[in-house]
């Protein structure tokens, strides 16, 4: 029963805090041509990464087509490409397809954009629940520490900013966490092979969301392979039994891949051609919005030139990429969310002090390292104009459990709790600052050239000017209090909850135990 109420509490906190920062305005933009003012800084479409999937969403709902009109292509630019004389978004269509029910649900009430973004928030809340379940059930943390693990990811990392708008990151995290948890459930009872269908389905769905995210599932499938083996000694011989039921879900995977290949063939002319390798369309470089599409020969030459990952992943970028993604002041993970420094201590703790859960911990660590090194070699590791290292949101999720593994096994509890609390206060302050202002913060390399601020210093200027992208604040609260007061209204209860879970709840639990004795 305590577990049930804890999950309800996680959902409640998620709904409350995510809703307070949900980005958008009332209306059905792109239908009533109300998109221009929404594309400015702090608007719901300040980034082309939000505009592109929304443009495809509108095209799917209003026209029943993956092809964009000229107006939609201009709106989604520069994340649009040519295929023949047609325009498409550069991303896989999964985010737009997932968002369709939310768009349709509120379209008649003139709330399509808000409902679409709220749909992504629902997936972010599911991530909080999954992190709680992983911390509580797999790593056997207390209910309080399991809740705190979920809160670290949700509200003390820059993932908060991307739970309030239209990005693929929280969907990717959901697929990674649910596949990992499903394999663990299968390992508890190999006769319940239905759990193994989940990771294979997830692998197929990942292709529709974000191609690099498929690679992040490799550790999960290694976990599945290891758990599908039963090794024992019999008559002084080592016997290995291979459970084929762990691989029945591969049929679902091939079905989803087959449909995606058909999508590529219909829209791009070949099952193996990806939108990322087609010629890009940038409306800002086209005079009077009139464009002469490239010839078929030009497109084919472009595909041949770009249809390789060698220009995306290069090992000579890893050193500078690691610096950018970990400690750099514009995008560094530990600069924006130093609470995750304790995750490193948690990793050492679990391998130094415990023989349990090493495999389960190793799989999460592998996801983190793969995520980190993959994007360190990426051509643009900072992820464009984004708040913090958005490419590392999956890493933030899998690492959020480890600070409390360290805390749980630390001999000096008071000191460890104080360190955790201070780091949470700092990390959540930065996270809330970002989600209430803008996600469009430039990397240092561009900010220096443009002579503007970078990192959360730009967000601070927006904050002091009272410029917010929060729907709740702009529509209801701004009439009564300013943005700084609204910030405090969210921040103080958040850190009070963390203080209570860290210091008060364990004290009450000890008193109850002493009374029973």
Automatic annotation (TrEMBL):
The keyword Membrane applies. It comes from Candidatus Roizmanbacteria bacterium RIFCSPHIGHO2_01_FULL_39_12c. Keywords: Membrane, Transmembrane, Transmembrane helix. This is Glycosyltransferase RgtA/B/C/D-like domain-containing protein. The keyword Cell inner membrane does not apply. The chain crosses the membrane at residues 87-105, 117-135, 141-163, 170-187, 207-226, 238-263, 332-351, 358-378, 390-407, 419-440, 486-508. It comes from the Bacteria.
